[in-house]
Design goal:
It contains 8 helices and 14 strands. It has 320 residues and is α/β, with parallel strands linked by helices. It folds into 2 domains: 136 residues, NAD(P)-binding Rossmann-like Domain (Rossmann fold, 3-Layer(aba) Sandwich), CATH 3.40.50; 158 residues, Dihydrodipicolinate Reductase, domain 2 (2-Layer Sandwich), CATH 3.30.360.10. The strands form 2 sheets. Strands 8-9-10-7-11-12-13-14 form an 8-stranded mixed beta sheet. The chain has a 6-stranded parallel beta sheet with strand order 3-2-1-4-5-6, sandwiched between helices. Helix 1 crosses helix 7 and helix 6 packs across helix 8. The N and C termini lie far apart (68 Å).
Length: 320
């Protein structure tokens, strides 16, 4: 099979990481990068021996597939052009700004018969991959995703910047509609919400409590799942999984639980994501995270943002 010619649109920090993965990955060839900042594009292109342009349209004749790693506000316009040109697209999360845009991208990918994958990279986190087969009908999910402030991603609030990873994971594992949500968000360093907490109640009875912050002093990414068979503590940052399992033994008339630290293979989540995308293109396999997955996460994220805004407006009225 001939190598897949791949391009990267957007050569900021994340786009440059994508370029590096493609450059080293068997089965594909990084042939071109593009960025409106030609200096950035030239720097990345030189590093990986690829062509570059300040206009993404100019690289489309060279590629079979692209990563779109530009600001969220540009995802729709760029991805739509690529899909209509018959080019497979891996678009970074969130898939785009509105559900209507996401639906249009999904339709365009189907019309052109090409792949659309959304960059919810935590699906490929080695800790998640290790815990995956142990997750069965969660009853309660508790998540803390905390980080330092960075200018990257501040074109959107913390829900679309960080929490959307955990929204996607929760929807992926619970597989039930959200019937009620309560949310609070606070703008601290930007005009958008920089810290947020949401409680999700699902139709099947599961409850998820998600907290995301980009104004914390320490970096934390903990995903905890409680279910009838036991409790999983997943450290997404340090790639560690503890499985606290209920066993069929009793002490003093009570059942006991035994903790076990699971062996997590050393893998790079972004490399796994990119590899999955290239394989889906080359072997005509389903993508790891579909456009529909990205749409569901975006729709729920927007519901959370609306509820956060309502609470802030209520708070402001009561202060007057």
């Amino acid at each position: 099979m001939n190598p897949i010619n791949v391009g990267v649109i957007g050569t900021g920090k994340l786009g440059s990481f994508h370029a590096g993965k493609y450059h080293r990955l068997p089965g594909c060839r990084l042939v071109a990068v593009a960025d409106t900042d030609s200096r950035k594009a030239r720097k990345t292109a030189k590093k990986y021996d690829a062509a570059f342009s300040g206009d993404f349209n100019e690289i489309l004749t060279k590629v079979d597939a692209v990563t779109v790693a530009t600001p969220t506000s540009t995802h729709y316009d760029i991805a739509l052009v690529c899909l209509k040109r018959g080019i497979h697209v891996l678009v970074e999360k969130p898939v785009c700004e509105t559900p209507e845009q996401a639906k249009a991208l999904i339709a365009a990918s189907k019309d052109a018969g090409v792949k659309l994958q959304v960059g919810h990279v935590e699906r490929f986190n080695p800790a998640i991959l290790r815990a995956d087969r142990l997750i069965n009908q969660p009853l309660f999910i508790e998540v803390h995703r905390l980080g330092n402030f960075s200018k990257r991603g501040t074109d959107v609030d913390v829900v679309l910047d960080l929490m959307i990873h955990d929204i996607d994971l929760a929807l992926h594992y619970v597989k039930s509609p959200v019937t009620h949500l309560s949310a609070v968000g606070v703008p601290v360093l930007t005009k958008h919400g920089d810290i947020a907490n949401v409680r999700l109640e699902f139709e099947n009875g599961c409850v998820a409590n998600l907290t995301a912050s980009r104004v914390s002093r320490e970096k934390t990414r903990k995903f905890r799942i409680f279910q009838e068979s036991g409790y999983l503590s997943i450290d997404l940052l340090n790639h560690a999984v503890t499985w606290v399992k209920k066993v069929n033994r009793q002490v003093l008339g009570r059942p006991i639980i035994l903790p076990r630290n699971l062996n997590v293979p050393k893998k790079d989540a972004l490399e796994e994501e990119v590899t999955s995308f290239v394989r889906s293109v080359g072997e005509n396999l389903p993508v790891g995270v579909t456009g529909e997955d990205g749409l569901k996460a975006l729709e729920l994220a927007n519901r959370i943002k609306d509820r956060m805004l309502e609470r802030l407006e209520t708070f402001a009225r009561k202060r007057r």
